[in-house]
Every structure is written in C-alpha cells, then in structure tokens.
Amino acid sequence: MTTQGYFDYNATTPVCSEAVNAFINAVTQYANPSSKYGLSKTSNEIINDARAQVATLIGADTGEVFFTSGGTESNNWAIKGAFFQQLKISSTRNHLIVSEMEHSSVLEVCAFLEREFDCTVTRLKPDSEGIVSVAAVANALRPETLLVSVMMVNNEVGSLQPIRDIAALLDDRASQQKNLHDQKIHFHVDAVQAVGKIPVDVRDLGVDTMSFSGHKFYAPKGIGGLYIRQGIKITPLLHGGGQERGLRGGTEAIASVAAMGAAAQVTVNTLNDQVVYLAKYRELLRSELLSVVPGVYFHGPANKALQAPNTLSVCIPGIRAEALAALLDNMHGIQVSLGAACSNNKSVALSHVLLSMGLDEDAVKATLRVSIGQYTTESDIHRFVQAVVTGVTTLFRISKPASQSYVTTA
Amino acid sequence: MTTQGYFDYNATTPVCSEAVNAFINAVTQYANPSSKYGLSKTSNEIINDARAQVATLIGADTGEVFFTSGGTESNNWAIKGAFFQQLKISSTRNHLIVSEMEHSSVLEVCAFLEREFDCTVTRLKPDSEGIVSVAAVANALRPETLLVSVMMVNNEVGSLQPIRDIAALLDDRASQQKNLHDQKIHFHVDAVQAVGKIPVDVRDLGVDTMSFSGHKFYAPKGIGGLYIRQGIKITPLLHGGGQERGLRGGTEAIASVAAMGAAAQVTVNTLNDQVVYLAKYRELLRSELLSVVPGVYFHGPANKALQAPNTLSVCIPGIRAEALAALLDNMHGIQVSLGAACSNNKSVALSHVLLSMGLDEDAVKATLRVSIGQYTTESDIHRFVQAVVTGVTTLFRISKPASQSYVTTA
Amino acid sequence: MFNDIIVKNFSNPEFAAEIDNATNTIELGNPVCGDRIKVQLHIEDGVIKKANYAAWGCATSLATGNVFCSHIHGAACSDIQSMDKANIENMLGELDPSQHHCLEMLHKLFEKLQHTIAVQ
Amino acid sequence: MFNDIIVKNFSNPEFAAEIDNATNTIELGNPVCGDRIKVQLHIEDGVIKKANYAAWGCATSLATGNVFCSHIHGAACSDIQSMDKANIENMLGELDPSQHHCLEMLHKLFEKLQHTIAVQ
Ligand SMILES: Cc1ncc(COP(=O)(O)O)c(C=O)c1O
Ligand SMILES: Cc1ncc(COP(=O)(O)O)c(C=O)c1O
Questions:
Q1: Which of A375, C24, C35, C60 fits a 20 to 30 Å CA distance from A58?
Q2: Which residue of D has its CA nearest to B348?
C-alpha cells in the first residue's frame, strides 16, 4: 500500500518489513513458551530477544519490560494497578492527578475509578501551547495523592511535557515531606506518542511506569508494553497463569512480540536521523503552508524543541477542517486527522485536547492534525501543500458569501 | 516446523497457513479503523469479515463478538466486568460460584476479588471424572449470588461440563424465585478449550458471556474474544477510545483479528470431520497404551461422549510423568504436558485440576496429558506409543529396585 | 465515509456561486454543528431559472447545498410544490449516522422553498 | 529445560543396576518432591570398585544418581575424602531453579559417602 498521501502517523504507522518478517519467522515457532520441553526454548528465546530490543529502545532493564496488547491496556494496567495495589493498604490514599489532555485510555480509567470507587481526580489544564506545568502538578498535590499521570508527548499537538521535572518534584516531595502514608506518589507516563518518535530513557526520566504501543513505531497493532520500574509494585490487570513474571497473564503473543522487537531494533538504529529529518520536513510543511494558505497558523509550543518532530497542528480560519479533510481524502488520497467531527445527528465531538488549551469551537473545527513518519518524502510534502491549497480554494469558493452574511437558524 | 511429535494441542496449536496468509494480507492495510478517511474502509471490512467468521463458529450475532488479546483477558473481563457492573447497583450481591477446576485466569480473578473486595467465592469440587454437577451449582446458589463461572471443557482431562443444564437452572431460578435484587445471575463460560474442538453454539447453550482464544484453534497467540449476549451489560476492562462498540478500548489488532477469522473459517469447514477422526485417534491411543504399558489407566469421564475428542489424561503408576516426559522430549522429540512439575527448590506444583478430582499425589505425579489436533496422523500415534514404551522401560530399569525398598529421608 | 453522491457534490460544487439578480433567498443554519447554507434563486414565470448556493460546514453539508440546487435548477415551481418527503429521502444516498443531520437540512430547504413559492 | 549433562545421564543411565555383592548402601530421599536415590557400592582395598544406583523421581534426580556413580566408580576412597563442595558444585552443569534440589541431593550423597568411608 502506498504511503505518499499518509499524513496521520500519530493515528498509526504502516508496519515495517522487518516487523513483518519477524512475525512470519516467529509464527512458525508455535510452542507455548510456558511449556517445559525443548520446543519451547526457541519461543522463549524469541520473547527474550524482543524484550531486550524493546528495553534498549527505552533504556530499561529487560526485567522491567512487560508485554501487553497495546497502549490502552498499559494505561489501564498502570493506573488501575497502582490504585488497587494501594487499596489493600489504605482506602484514604485516593487522589489522582492527570492532565486534561491525556488520551481517553487514561481519562476513562480515571472516570471509572472516580465513579465506582471512593476516589477523587484532579484534571490539570495545560497552557495555551499544550504544556502542563510542573507548578500545576505541585499545586494539585495533596497528602492523599496516590498517583500522577501525565503523557510524554501529546498526540494532537505534539507538545512535550516536562516529565523529568515532574518526576523530580515527586521525588523531592517523597524525601522532604512525608505524605500521609509514607509512600511515594506513583508517577505514570503515557509515552505512546513518544516511544519511537523521540529518544526516551526511563532512567533519565525517573518515571515509575510508562506505556508504549508497537503500532506507533511500525509494529503491528495489538501489541505494546508497560515499563515497570524495578521495585515498583502494581496489581495485575490480567490475572492468570504466571506469564510475564506473574504480572500479566495470557499466553504470550510470540509473533507479535517478535515483530515489535524488530521494529524497536530498527527504531534504535534510525531514531537519531529520523528526529532530524522529520523536524526538517515539519518545518518545510509549516513554511510552505504559511506562504500559500491565507491566515493559517499552528497550535502547540512556540519553542519548536518542545514539539514532537513529526507533528503539526494546523488551523485554517474560515474553513471546516472536516470538509478540507474530505476533499484531501477523496480528491487527493491524502489522510489527516481532525480536531472535530460530527459524531451523530445531534452533536459534534470537539477535541478535548484543543479545548483544554483554551481554543474556541471555531478554532477547533478549523484544525487539522498533520503527522509524518519514516516513509514521508519531501515530494509528499510538496504534493500535500498543493492539495491543501486546492482544497482551501474550493472551500472558500463555496463558503465565502455565506460566511459573511448573517444567517438565521432554522 | 514439524508437528509429528506434538501431543500438546491443549497448550497451544501450530498456526494454520490460512491464518498466516490472512495476517500477511491484512498487515499491509495499515490504516487505523477508527479513522474517518477512505483508507480505513478496508481495515474496517477486514475486522467485520473476521467478526462474522468468528460469530459463525460460535453461533452468535456479529454484534455479540468482542475481540480481546486472548482467553485470559476474556475471562478477566467477563468476571470483573460482571462484578463491577453490579457494584454500582448493590454491594450486597457479592457471591461468586466457580468450579475448582477452572483455569488460573478464572481462579486468580476470583481470588483477587475475594481479597480486595467484599466478596465471597464458592469453589465447587468436580466428581472423580472431572465433571461439575448441576446439583452442586444449585446447592451453592444464594440470594446474593452474582455470577456463576464454569468452563465448558477442562484443559487437563477434557471433561465436558453440563453448561446447557446450568444455564437452564439459572434461567429457571430467575423466572421462579426472585433473587435478592431481581437480577439474573450472570453465567460466564470459559470455552477456550471448547471452541475449535467441539461444536459450540451460544444460543443453544444459553450463556451470558463466553471466552475463546485463537491460539487454541490454529490462529496466532495473543488474540481471542468474548461473546457477550445481546442485552447483557458488563463494565469494560480496558477503558479507552470507543473501539469494539465502546466496550473494549485499544486500536484493533487488525492483522491478528484477520488471522483468527481465517482460522475460524477453516474450523467451521472442518470441525465435524475433526471431531470424528480425533476421537478415533484418541481411542487408538488409549487401546494401544493399554496393550503395552503395564497398569496404565486414564482420568476423565467414563462416558467417552463427555470428553473432548482430542484429549487423553494418561496415568502410569510407578513412574514419574515428569521423567517420562523428559525422555520423550529429549530422546524422541515428543511434547506432552504434565500433572505435576518441580516448581522450585522447595515445592512441587501439583495440578489443581487433578487434585480437585480427588487424585492423590502419587497419581498426579504419574499423569501425562496427551492432546492431539488437526496435524496428528495415525503414524504419529504409533510412534508416540512406541516412545512411551521405551521410556517406561528405561524408567522401570532405573527405579524398580529403589521403589520397592524402604527409603529413609535424608 | 462518504458515498459517491456526497463526494461528487462536495468535490465539484457546480452551483457554488452568487446570483446578482436573485429574486429569493433561502437560509438555513444548524445550531448544533454550525452548518450554514444560503441558497439564492432566480424565479421567473413559475420556473426556477437559476439556483446557486453558499455554505459553511462539513463536507456533507457542502454537498447538500449542491444537491439541492442541482435538483431545483430549471424546475417548474408546480413540480416543486408537488414533491413530498419520499422524493427527497434518497437524494443524498446512504448516510452514516453522523451525516444524517444533512438530510434533515435538505428536507428543511425544500420546505422553505415550497413556502417561498407558496407565498409568492 | 535440561542441560546436556542431565539429558545424557537420564537418557542413558549406565549405572542404573543392582549389585549382588554390595559392601555398602547409601540412601537418600527428598521429602518435598519425593525423589529417592539408592546407591549400592562395592568397596575393596580403599577403592570403590563398583557403584550402581536406583532412583525414583524427576528426570534430574535420575540423572543425579548416574552422575554420582560415574564420578565415584573406580575412585580411590582417599580421593573421595579430599573432595570439597567446590568439586561437586558443577557436576550437574547449569540448573534451572526447579532442578536445584538435585544439586543438594548430590552434595548429600557425597557427604554420606564420605561418612561411610570414614566409619569403615
Ligand atoms: C481453559 C482455559 N482458559 C483460559 C486459557 C487462557 O487463554 P490465553 O492463553 O489465550 O490467555 C487457557 C489456555 O491457556 C485455557 O486452557
Ligand atoms: C497518547 C496515546 N495513548 C494511548 C494510546 C492507545 O494506544 P493503543 O491504540 O495501542 O491502545 C494512543 C493511541 O491510540 C495514544 O495516542
């Protein structure tokens, strides 16, 4: 399948040939890794090798990497796992802090715990550039705070969050001022949009748990992992046989694990280069759009070093991004994501991320998310910009008069 | 990889070529099914097709099939999901009934709920043939009973459980005698060892939720599903984006889903034949072993119609199955499972299934699980029996004198 | 996903234009999603000689404006008056749930047009 | 999984046999897993002329009996007496945690043998 029109790498990535080949090779090794016979040795080796490859990608020890079915499971596991782990000891440590711009797999888990258990959730607003401040976290801390969860890179605007500083804050807090139960606050990080896109080193960051997902870095969908720092205890989410050192039941998804390992390996080898040329392409995209699309501007950090190199959040005032995306898709075979979409007959789903940054409804509806990746070429970018110009021209031709006149509602 | 020595199909199955090909075809369709552009159409079609194939295999509507990462997730989801769903309404409906011979992914979930929540678990003993009686379930029912979970086919002895009758009992109970909260008792069935091995029809059975796992019927590991009967509500286990109609978050594992669909399709086409010839091979195995291994006998239902056609639980008194399995593996490249294994320096893990049937420690240690499947041939069976004879002879040569003399412990 | 009718009509909106000598104007807004359609008409001798539109909204609503104009352009007012809901129902082809509000808009446009013709 | 030493010794246990004219017998049982090893010896002129064993237990324990016999068969009693733990430690090769109890059994067997020789 061609990727020349694909500008939605943050939604998912094409699978690299190394990952496909690793899958095909591993899938013939059918023995259950938990079995005790010789045939299982290869299955175990495949898993161990992949674990080492993934551990290298994130700077962890192999013993700290646990395979899951993806980022959603990892986020559910980390947050529920920390919560239920604590529930045994004390039901009064029941305060969670998250950012408002987290992925739904974090926000929905918090809403579940809030709804079903005696638990309070503080949701921190990011600033207008999409960054949660360390001060905001510090202000939200309470004696009964159990967990802080902040994503590393936002999926919609690409803003990098101050993970290292938040970790340091929580460490400081733990050493200086004893909290209610003398237990460190658990720091979970959703790094699904970071791992494979920017260098990530768990030791350097100082996080307790960290989620990642294979399909964001060229592995198949449905495989991911959770980093659990040595010594940190969380309750399993999938109870069962003793797989993943007793912490995650279920027969290991060997072939998918192997595929993710291979993709991790490729990433380790190419990431430094990718970061440089993707940022270059992103800036090319930005400057070309600026020169040809009237009024266009961008959401996200003013300081470009604080944005994922592959992501651009594009706002074209006066148009509906949904209509532009439809033109790009149907006329040019180009894929992008949206800040808003009609979700049913009665409502429009507006991006909670963009709203949390203080954007108004019109701006949200005028926003496209453009995200590039390792198969993007310079000519794809030119072609993309050309298509945007054509689309915007069409839209302005349709909407110009109406948008200027006063319109009564039906 | 050769399968001629593989006699452990209950642990996992080799992946069929149809499933591998389906994976390879689907993995190039990289678009995220949740995206709104044309490229996602194929991804969605792949998932819909696979859902239809799986639904056909179990007699469900497509709307009742939810994809998961395997049997363990499905069991965790169904039981925790029914429990947490109820928790909202009433914390006094907190009694669970399971059999003692359930898979660890059922038992561990119950133990978790028992440990962490105000919840009581009744564990029913099967009879000596490995069958849980409907009467036992009936006797265990209480006004506060929330859920009954009984597996359809036991993984170690292959005994079929009276699922239809238990469902009827619970239906009766619901219609006759109102329970504490006027809510039907949730009936979950772990059918991981049934789906793909015997005909399964959810409508006919009358269950509320039912787990299955692809790698038990020639799909890759790490993909499975949960049947949720239309109208039954359970809380999600993986909260997140709206995938799987809002009930199971996480970007869909398209390629693995396609592979499981293909494997389901093959099974639908071949199951009737398989059931007949596997039962024939199993009986061949039984009669050959009886004729050449002194003292050998079998655990499980006397009525062979109540046993999975592919499973034989073999007991050879006077030997350690673990030692025989080691000989089979290392001398003959044959794989079987065990009723017991040294798990560490200080303990032996004895099969909880065999113990629940009333077997003593010696019998458990003398038990091998032999399970066959679609790649097993008649000559594999002859070769297997020959290898067992050789192994038993070696073991008797080593152990005969010692086993007869009185031995003091160290 | 968009059906062929919708794609054709939003990607090539022939009727997106302004009329200098409009005799009538129909305007419609959807308060929920903010879609707006403005149709200008030139009606003469019981015939809709010209219909053009402008719109601001999602792709389906842009298409809706064009579909509406293409059906009424050149039509006799009497034919418009005799149309009922069933005639309109399939003009947009098969729609996703998220696109259904546009069918409602189309119905409203015809209603307004019939009203406009009636009071003339 | 079994290492090569273990595989070789349980699949081809050359010393699994009974001695008619045994001068000594060593017996050992593991109360946890029920492994049992019985070694018969023929000791003469300060030399272990013959060592044979019988065993009932897991594969590693069967191998352990054979490894033990193969090391002491034909050995001088004085050499046995001068052995220490370090000599024995690697005789079974690398073991999984679940196999470690067999190394303990091997140490015990040597202890018992040394004791047997000492009291002779
Ligand atoms: C009866 C039973 N239930 C559940 C499972 C778990 O399935 P999975 O390995 O796909 O998680 C298994 C097999 O491992 C099983 O045999
Ligand atoms: C920030 C973030 N977290 C979590 C996820 C969920 O990952 P997965 O789709 O693998 O469940 C995604 C992507 O979908 C994401 O962008």
A1: A375
A2: D33
